[in-house]
Amino acid sequence: MVKVCCIGAGYVGGPTMAVIALKCPNIEVAVVDISVPRINAWNSDQLPIYEPGLDNVVKQCRGKNLFFSTDVEKHVSEADIVFVSVNTPTKTQGLGAGKAADLTYWESAARVIADVSKSDKIVVEKSTVPVKTAEAIEKILTHNSKGIKFQILSNPEFLAEGTAIQDLFNPDRVLIGGRETPEGQKAIKALKDVYAQWVPEDRILTTNLWSAELSKLAANAFLAQRISSVNAMSALCEATGANVSQVAFAVGTDSRIGPKFLNASVGFGGSCFQKDILNLVYICECNGLPEVAEYWKQVIKINDYQKSRFVNRVVSSMFNTVSNKKIAILGFAFKKDTGDTRETPAIDVCKGLLGDKARLSIYDPQVTEDQIQRDLTMNKFDWDHPLHLQPMSPTTVKQVSMVWDAYEATKDAHGVCILTEWDEFKTLDYQRIYDNMQKPAFVFDGRNVVDVDKLREIGFIVYSIGKPLDPWLKDMPAVA
């Protein structure tokens, strides 16, 4: 029986390994992590991450050919294939701070593999890593190998949170990069045989190591660039009276461009986009390509501009001050169908409003109060370190309250900001919300989920990103 082990039981490792176990009953899959609470959660009825369909997959396989354990050394030493899916946060100090990836966790995983291995192994990079990481990992493994042979493969994940299980069941492509040597090709074939048990052969792409590593960064950079492009257009739409949804639809019907990732919003979030682009910027700079680095930096600049533009619009619309005003925040996760708050635009929007002394009442169906308080008090980039290494926040933000219902959040509020596109926000009883709010009542739709005309009929002053401005807002231009 082939044995697979994955180091790292997070958003990538957990779901990926669960699906491999489901689709390959002849493979024994172990997911290991040093975090005891996280492994306990994977072994309980309350999984540590929310992802539609994940629960079902885990319960079908757990205890049969899928195991979650903190005994890292045992499972690594027994495995034929070791996936490494640990955090690669952005460095916060030292060389490349604010841009380069911090490979501390990767390196310690490689050293564990070298220390405990008694047989040849295939080591698979599953977390997003900078180009040429494989080379560094290879050096650590070969210099500590005691005669054991390791083959390094790059197998980046292309999962979207909220649809991860479907993405794993039916991927656009599986990418496997390896060395162009007979041993490298043999390792590629071994991993390909795992995926081929459910993925059509023509969707399994094989490349050299560096192409696979760079393809992941490139894919995320291109996706983020599309969002920044439509968000840049949304600012122009507001200035000219155009409607960004109509513009995006017209652009998206061009078969060369396509309709996906053209929704204007308050900005992109998630654990990958910003981090991967900063990484790309750093790699470009290190390779003497400042113009290319500058080009990709602009994608992040537009994203930051979009978030601050949204905050400015809220403050300027409400008589230039939100001091001591109650603002309801609907949605804190970076997108619907996930409880993930990493780099969510909501953090910057909330911090911006708190900077103007607003009182926030936050509702999100999947995010806990503890997580929101941590996010609002944490330093940039700290979120990407394992939980036990993150600073414990002794301070809670007093002007923030967390409620479990949209109507409670909006009661007596001066304004409502919609920051996540949860489906339930489309069907709320906005008449009821309006009746219970301070007047004039404002809705700032950062995700374009509400029917603007309907809300204006009720009596709301509505700001919807990239849509023609309410007469009220025209008289109160947002100053950047």
UniProtKB/TrEMBL annotation:
It comes from the Eukaryota. This is UDP-glucose 6-dehydrogenase family protein. It comes from Melia azedarach (Chinaberry tree).
